[in-house]
């Protein structure tokens, strides 16, 4: 009787209560993605005018996106450094460090002088701080995913793994909502251009506001204790002196598979959030040197995007129970087939007026939620506890280079080579999804793996 009671009582008192796990994994990724989306929005609206004034609108936009991609290149380095610390010294302190790095870099971007004031030094400083953002995000995601999955009850790892993933749509809504409020307070006479007040100082507010969110995030994360899985590995002497060497020596296949698992997710993610804002706002009849688009004002298209991102959040949560019931592999195979098909119907949907564009956004963001949600459990499940932070982080962030760093840049180039049509952009997405599908077909199911072993 007493033995049975003790056995059933143990899982009821985990190292971290469920509410603390949810908040700690969710709030950090919300802040990190908020900071990233603030930059992504400014990369379209502001930075081409203030930091890359080349005289050619398309060249300025491509330059701004190139800096956007620079952060993705820094992410694997962040994954290695923070992964090493997380696998040797624990998840808690590492997550606090990643959050502070991101918050400070974002805040400083809001204080930067522009090209008109200091010339080439302005874009140089922007690149440095953007790289710092990428470095921080490289260590943030895997730590947040581990906090969720290593503290999850049996049979609910994918469900718990959706909590850090939910930070992406929430961060997007907060960032773009704040930009919308500022744009409403500082309206422009030209719907295709921000107002002068917005360019002078309004764009800085979202970057400076990040400090408030970081303070809240630190308060939550400092209350965490280490997960049972990490504490057990530490007590049993299983921690490795050099996790990076261990993961490359013994788990290189999982690194490759994990990287390709994320390709379709990343390509879809940044095409739907960054490229779409450029294409949606571009005039139908473009001026010389610019590319034609849908001709919506920033306010209208940003509201449409937020409407689509709501579906991103909903289907991120839906994906968890599906992946717990049917398995990560089977769920993602079907979703990836959907992404391939979606890339093939871009032009008909985008050419069908307002409701066609809204359908495009809803379908795209719904698929985004369904593919992004299970990754919070799938990537950590590929690796043992003593290299889990490093392995999942490297896979996630190397994929950010292949699937996201170049995505907005390639999309603009394809948009340009297609004479203003997004047809080849959709084909590009489908090709990335085919590579993900191949990786999934070559993989094994991870749903029933014991991550505490």
Summarize the structure in words.
- Helix content is 77%, strand content 0%.
- The protein has 22 helices and no strands.
- It is mostly helical and 453 residues long.
- It has one domain: Growth Hormone, Chain: A.
- Keywords: Cell membrane, Membrane, Symport, Transmembrane, Transmembrane helix, Transport.
- May be a proton symporter involved in the uptake of osmolytes such as proline and glycine betaine.
Which CATH class? Mainly Alpha
Point out poorly predicted stretches: 1-13
Overall tally of domains: 1
Q: Helix coverage percent of residues?
A: over 70%
According to CATH, the fold-level topology is Growth Hormone, Chain: A
> Radius of gyration, Cα only, in angstroms?
22 Å
Q: What is the assigned CATH homologous superfamily?
A: MFS general substrate transporter like domains
Total number of strands: 0
SSE string, helices as H and strands as E: HHHHHHHHHHHHHHHHHHHHHH
End-to-end separation: 27 Å
Class from secondary-structure proportions? mainly alpha
> What is the count of helical runs?
22
Backbone shape: globular
| β-strand amount | under 5%
Average pLDDT figure: 84
* Main sheet makeup: none
Please tell me the CATH architecture by its name. Up-down Bundle
Key traits:
transport, 453 residues, disordered N terminus, transmembrane helix, Putative proline/betaine transporter, single chain, Growth Hormone, Chain: A, 77% helix, membrane
């Amino acid at each position: 009787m007493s033995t049975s009671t003790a056995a059933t009582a143990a899982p009821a008192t985990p190292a971290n209560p469920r509410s603390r796990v949810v908040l700690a994994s969710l709030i950090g990724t919300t802040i990190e993605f908020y900071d990233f989306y603030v930059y992504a929005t400014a990369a379209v609206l502001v930075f081409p005018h203030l930091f890359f004034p080349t005289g050619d609108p398309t060249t300025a936009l491509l330059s701004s996106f190139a800096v956007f991609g620079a952060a993705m290149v820094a992410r694997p380095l962040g994954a290695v450094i923070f992964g090493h610390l997380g696998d040797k010294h624990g998840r808690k302190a590492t997550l606090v460090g990643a959050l502070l790095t991101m918050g400070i870099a974002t805040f400083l971007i809001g204080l930067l002088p522009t090209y008109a004031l200091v010339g080439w030094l302005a874009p140089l400083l922007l690149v440095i701080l953007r790289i710092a953002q990428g470095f921080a995000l490289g260590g943030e995601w895997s730590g947040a995913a581990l906090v969720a999955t290593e503290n999850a009850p049996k049979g609910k790892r994918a469900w718990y793994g959706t909590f850090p993933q939910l930070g992406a749509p929430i961060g997007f809504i907060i960032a773009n909502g704040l930009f919308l409020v500022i744009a409403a307070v500082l309206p422009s006479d030209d719907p295709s251009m921000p107002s002068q007040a917005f360019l002078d100082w309004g764009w800085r507010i979202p970057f400076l506001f990040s400090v408030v969110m970081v303070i809240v995030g630190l308060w939550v994360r400092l209350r965490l204790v280490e997960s049972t899985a990490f504490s057990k590995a530490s007590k049993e002497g299983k921690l490795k002196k050099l996790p990076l060497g261990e993961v490359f020596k013994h788990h290189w296949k999982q690194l490759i598979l994990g990287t390709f698992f994320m390709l379709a997710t990343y390509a879809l993610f940044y095409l739907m959030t960054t490229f779409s804002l450029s294409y949606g706002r571009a005039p139908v009849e473009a001026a010389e040197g610019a590319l034609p688009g849908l001709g919506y004002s920033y306010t209208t298209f940003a509201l449409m995007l937020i409407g689509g991102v709501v579906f991103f959040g909903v289907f991120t949560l839906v994906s968890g129970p599906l992946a717990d019931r049917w398995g990560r592999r089977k769920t993602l195979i079907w979703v990836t087939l959907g992404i391939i098909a979606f890339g093939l119907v871009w032009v008909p949907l985008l050419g069908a007026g307002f409701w066609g564009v809204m359908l495009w956004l809803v379908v795209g963001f719904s698929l985004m939620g369904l593919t992004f949600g299970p990754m919070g459990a799938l990537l950590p499940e590929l690796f043992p506890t003593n290299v889990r932070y490093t392995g999942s982080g490297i896979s996630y962030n190397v994929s950010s280079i292949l699937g996201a760093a170049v995505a907005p840049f390639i999309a603009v180039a394809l948009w340009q080579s297609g004479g203003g049509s997004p047809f080849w952009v959709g084909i590009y997405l489908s090709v990335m999804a085919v590579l993900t599908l191949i990786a999934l077909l070559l993989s094994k199911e991870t749903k029933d793996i014991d991550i505490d072993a």
